[in-house]
Every structure is written in C-alpha cells, then in structure tokens.
Amino acid sequence: MGSLSAVRAIYLSICAVFILGLFLLFSRSFAELYRSLGAKLRLRELKRLMGEVPEGGELRGTAGLSSMVELAFGVKRENSGPLFIALSLGLALTVFVLLIFSYGAGLAIWGFIATALSPYLVLRTRLRNLQVDMSREGEQLLTELLNNYRIEGYNMGEAVERTALTIEDAPLSKRMLLDLSRQMNAASGEAELKKAIERFRLALSTSWGDLLAANLEFAAVDGIIVTESLRDLVENIGNARRLLEQTKRENSDSGMILKVLFPVMCALIYLGATAAFGLTPAQFARNQFATRTGMGWFISLVFSYLLSLLASAFIARRKMDI
Fold it and tell me: What is the structure's pLDDT at 50?
C-alpha cells in the first residue's frame, strides 16, 4: 500500500507541474485569445446594430452540425448531423459497458463522457484546421474576387464563378468557391441564395469572412456595388498577414515542447516507480492497468494530454483575421 501511495503522489505532483507548465507556456496566447474573443464579440454586435451583417439564415442545431460534418469531412448527407450524434453515443455506450464490469460505475461514467465528447472535439479541431488554412488563403481570394468583380461588370455571381475557375495555389478556397457558385446558380429564390452565402460564411468563420459574406449578399441579392468595401478588406487582410508572420515564429517552439511532454512524463512516472520506490516492471504494470485507481489516473492523464493538444491547435495555430 505504501508503494501505491507513493505512485499516486508522483502522479499528483507530475500532473500539477504539467498543468502549471501548460499555463506558463501559453499564458500569453491565453491573454491574446481572451482579448480577441471580446473584441470579436463587440465588433459583431456593432455590425449587427449598424446593419452591416444581415440577421437572417444562420444554421443552427442538427442543420448546423450537418454543415460542420460536410465542411470537415466532405460527407454530403442531409442527416449527417443526427448520424454523427448517434455514432458518438453508440461509441460512448460501448466504452461504458466495457468499463463498468471491470472498473465500476465511476470510471465508466467518466469514460462515457470523455468518449461521447471526443468525436465532437475531433470534428471541431478538423474544422478549425481547415478554417485556419483557408483563412491564410484569404488575401489571394479577396484580391482575385475583387479583380473579377470589376471584370464581370459588378456581377457578383459571375465574379464568384470566374474566381473559382481561375484561382491557383488556394485549393480550399477554390473548392468552397466552386460549391458557392454551384449553389448560387441553382438557387431558386432569395432564401436559398442567402443560405448558400451563410454556408460559405460558416466555412470561413472569420471577421473578414463575415464581412465578405455580407458584401456577397448585398451585391448578389440587393444589387449594391461593393467595390470599395472589398478593397478595404484586401488592405486589412494584408496587414493581418504581416502580423501573423511575426506571431507564427513565436509559437513554433511551444508546440514542439508540448508534443514531447507526454512521452517524457510517462518515462518519468515509470522511472520514479521502479528506481525510486523499488517496484518491478510487473508490479508497476499491475498497479497501473489492473487496478481501478491506476487505470483511472492513466485515462485522466491521456485525456488531459489530448485536451492540451486540442488547446494548442486552437491557440497556437491562429487564423489570419482582421
């Protein structure tokens, strides 16, 4: 029992150092994220009050989830949202049944929650990575769209189609513009046109994407010429690109440290248990994986590390935004 208590003490100490290290490593990024989220919310509310961003047609509920699955994985099915929920719950129930007979109800419940949330976290991370990559194609997208908008005589539908066909070195933007052009051409009314633009805005998920979607709607639905607004967007996103290049160099080292932290931590746990407290490898494996406490700590450790990787993906890989 004394050896097992010592192993638990090592776990608690290493986990505390791990959490403190993550906070110190990303403290500046956390502060920047907090400030940017607050500024974005205030800016969005101001745009709505001023009428710059149309109110209608945002995708919510299972429709919004279906759009996220389509954007992230290319699954074009109307019921992909409910199907995603059903698969997540089915996987979680399977884990719950496997754990409850071996480790009891407490660990089984935590396993159910963690497994049920994991597919959504993967979905959000995949979508976030696509949006980050697409945001970095924004300057080229906006520049070519503006040029083609002038060439096509201020016809936004034709400008979108021409840009989709001619844009190079921007594969994600090309795919989204092709989908947008196809949906705009197939739209039978104003509501379907707004829905197509809203899906495009959801794919971008940036402040400049919100403004671009508003300009697309003003031009395609209301016939307003938006040349000056698009020119301002091109200028602002050029400034954002230069700022992003500076911050990207600062975040590369912290991401590398995080990737090697978990293997090093596991090695230190093993060395502490065997070298410092005299456990044999067999005793360590039995205490770690054949007991409820050991397995619970191991699952918590793995899940915490996965969450830290997800947090790193959301914080360190920043979108190019205005």
Answer: 47
